[in-house]
């Protein structure tokens, strides 16, 4: 495999499994530490009733938060199912009143929990850390870092 393909595979692995790209590049200790830190941060966030964000056209910053959540790779799907009992990425239109109200009720119920904001921040932080790790894998792969 050409070097570019090797780097691309390492980046995909880093997105799929926190630390996976580092493991592929032979950085075993870093890989384990990153896996534990990001996975633990994510699950602590869920345990604190944090939620993943849904993109909403009336809240433009929600797109950035949704992107941060997507940095978690497949763990984002776990977070979406835990938050909304389904895999959903965008807040439903008001035209679909039943679905819209159901998602709104689930979101409001989580917001009322005192630890919700901390949990949501933990989940966002885990996603952003994983995005940084993908960039770190890229830098390591091209030789910019060792």
What does the model show?
The protein is mainly α and 146 residues long. It has one domain. It has seven helices and no strands. The chain is elongated and about 50 Å long. The two termini are 20 Å apart.
List keywords for this structure.
single chain, mainly alpha, 70% helix, 0% strand, elongated
Largest sheet: none
Given the helix and strand composition, which structural class is it?
A: mainly alpha
C-alpha geometry: elongated
Order of helices and strands: HHHHHHH
Rg calculated over all Cα atoms: 17 Å
* SS summary, helix count: 7
The low-confidence runs, each spanning 5 or more residues with pLDDT under 50, are none
Number of strands: 0
Strand content: under 5%
What is the topological layout?
Blueprint: H1 3-16, H2 20-24, H3 28-47, H4 61-70, H5 74-84, H6 97-111, H7 116-142
In short:
By secondary structure, the chain is an all-alpha fold. Helices cover about 70% and strands about 0% of the residues.
């Amino acid at each position: 495999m050409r070097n570019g393909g090797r780097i691309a595979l390492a980046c995909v692995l880093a997105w799929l499994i926190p630390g996976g790209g580092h493991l592929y590049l032979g950085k075993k200790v870093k890989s384990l530490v990153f896996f534990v830190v990001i996975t633990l941060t994510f699950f602590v966030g869920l345990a604190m009733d944090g939620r993943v964000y849904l993109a909403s056209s009336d809240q433009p910053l929600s797109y950035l938060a949704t992107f941060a959540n997507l940095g978690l790779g497949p763990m984002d799907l776990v977070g979406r199912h835990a938050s909304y009992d389904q895999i959903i990425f965008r807040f439903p239109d008001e035209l679909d009143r039943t679905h819209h109200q159901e998602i709104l009720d689930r979101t409001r119920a989580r917001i009322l929990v005192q630890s919700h904001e901390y949990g949501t921040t933990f989940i966002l932080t885990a996603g952003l850390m994983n995005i940084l790790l993908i960039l770190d894998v890229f830098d390591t792969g091209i030789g910019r870092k060792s």
